[in-house]
């Protein structure tokens, strides 16, 4: 199929309905990406905006109880909204296995991958998707397999066999790290108790994505992910060594590359934690730029409130005299509002403001 023959209706059929995904486009040997994937100039990353002198903090969490660790994490969450953690206790083999599983899934024949499209999937808890939303004016250069993880849910047995065990082992090893991170972040707010209510409010549901960003003939025109902030409480990201994740710097119009560190996990604050912290912690815009010569893989775990959880500033902060910046919102309403439109930076937070 030539670039000239890819028109909008054919493109959606080829990429989505036939299960080829963006990976299928990438293999066509196109000299120029289809018009649907070309970002408007104002949404492309200008190399002059990249700040090479700065990087997000890398924090050694081998001793979670060390006051210095608590301070470093809280400071990073307030200033940067992003940091990397090392010595977190998850075996390197587990990390490497889940990355390899992501590659293997996206190397499956299209007829196999097609079985996990929303309308075909044996369970709504695993879905193959492409871009952010097909309703977008400009599509993103990515495919991803989305897993909705709930404890004791038998539908995990219907996840793809090529990646199921590796994803489940990764989640099992990461859950204690998630809980420790949230406990430390709450301690930084002087919120002492991480009870069942707060656990449901902050980590009641997990979404695990196997993200695949195929090599792209025109990376300067495309976006793997447009600029956005996550709506999670926190996001735990495992990335490969290709690079391409950029976060908004502390000054306007500056972007900082998150340099891959072997064995590290990238942590970012989501909107939900910004809301419960009453703006002390910040969710920060970030984006992914694709590569001309290598496929990029990453595995984010979006740590979300339970769907029916009502999320608002912690009462402990308001009891201290702070005025609420946000009202209480049901997470499912916030989630649906976010996905009803394309990425829009941090505009979704306005939905929850008082």
Radius of gyration: 20 Å
First and last CA, distance:
52 Å
Quick one: CATH superfamily?
Answer: B-lactam Antibiotic, Isopenicillin N Synthase, Chain
Low-confidence stretches: none
Q: Provide the CATH top-level class.
A: Mainly Beta
Structural class determined from secondary elements: alpha+beta
Largest sheet: 8 strands, mixed
- Helical content class: 25-40%
What is the fold named in CATH at topology level?
Answer: Jelly Rolls
CATH architecture designation: Sandwich
**Percentage of β-strand residues:** 15-25%
Average pLDDT: 91
Shape: globular
Number of helices: 10
Helix/strand layout:
Elements: H1 8-17, H2 21-26, E1 58-60, H3 67-79, E2 82-86, H4 92-106, H5 110-113, E3 126-130, E4 143-149, H6 164-187, H7 196-203, E5 205-213, E6 225-228, E7 234-239, E8 245-248, E9 255-257, E10 265-269, H8 271-276, E11 286-288, E12 296-304, E13 310-311, H9 315-319, E14 329-330, H10 331-339
Parallel strand pairs: 1-2
Antiparallel strand pairs: 2-10, 3-4, 4-5, 5-12, 6-11, 7-10, 7-12, 8-9, 8-11, 13-14
Helix pairs in contact: 3-6, 4-6
Structural notes for this entry:
Pathway: Phenylpropanoid metabolism. Belongs to the iron/ascorbate-dependent oxidoreductase family. Its EC number is 1.14.11.61. The longest helix has 24 residues, at about 165-185. This protein is α+β, with helices and mostly antiparallel strands and about 350 residues long. It has one domain (about 5-350): B-lactam Antibiotic, Isopenicillin N Synthase, Chain (Jelly Rolls, Sandwich). The model has no long low-confidence stretch (mean pLDDT about 90). The strands form 3 sheets. An 8-stranded mixed beta sheet has the order 1-2-10-7-12-5-4-3. A 4-stranded antiparallel beta sheet has the order 6-11-8-9, with no helix packed on it. A two-stranded antiparallel ribbon has the order 13-14. Helix content is about 30%, strand content about 20%. It starts with 7 loop residues before the first helix and ends in a 15-residue tail after the last helix. α3 crosses α6 and α4 packs across α6. β8 and β9 (about 255) form a beta hairpin.
């Amino acid at each position: 199929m030539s670039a000239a023959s890819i028109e909008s209706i054919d493109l959606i059929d080829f990429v989505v309905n036939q299960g080829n995904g963006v990976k299928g486009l990438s293999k066509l040997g196109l000299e120029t990406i289809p018009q649907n994937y070309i970002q408007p100039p104002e949404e492309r990353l200008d190399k002059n905006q990249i700040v090479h002198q700065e990087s997000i903090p890398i924090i050694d969490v081998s001793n979670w109880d060390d006051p210095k660790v608590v301070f470093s994490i809280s400071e990073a969450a307030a200033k940067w909204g992003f940091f990397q953690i090392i010595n977190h206790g998850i075996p390197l083999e587990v990390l490497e296995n889940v990355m390899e599983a992501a590659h293997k899934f996206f190397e499956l024949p299209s007829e196999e991958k097609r079985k996990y499209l929303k309308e075909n999937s044996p369970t709504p808890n695993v879905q193959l998707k492409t871009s952010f939303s097909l309703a977008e004016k400009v599509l993103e250069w990515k495919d991803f397999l989305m897993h909705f993880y709930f404890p004791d849910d038998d539908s995990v047995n219907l996840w793809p066999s090529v990646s199921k065990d590796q994803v489940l082992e990764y989640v099992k090893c990461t859950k204690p790290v998630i809980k420790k991170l949230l406990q430390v972040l709450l301690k930084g707010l002087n919120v002492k108790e991480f009870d069942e209510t707060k656990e449901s409010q902050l980590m009641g549901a997990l979404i695990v994505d196997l993200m695949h960003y195929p090599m792209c003939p025109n990376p300067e025109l495309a976006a793997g992910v447009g600029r956005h902030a996550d709506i999670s409480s926190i996001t735990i990201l495992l990335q490969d060594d290709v690079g391409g994740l950029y976060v908004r710097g502390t000054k306007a119009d500056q972007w900082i590359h998150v340099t891959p560190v072997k064995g590290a996990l990238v942590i970012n604050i989501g909107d939900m934690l910004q809301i419960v912290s009453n703006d002390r912690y910040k969710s920060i815009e970030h984006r992914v730029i694709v590569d001309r010569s290598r496929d990029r893989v990453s595995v984010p775990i979006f740590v979300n409130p339970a769907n029916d959880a009502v999320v608002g500033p912690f009462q402990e902060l308001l009891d201290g005299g702070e005025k609420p910046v946000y009202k209480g919102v049901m997470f499912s309403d916030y989630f649906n509002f976010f996905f009803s439109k394309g990425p829009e930076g941090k505009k979704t937070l306005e939905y929850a403001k008082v």
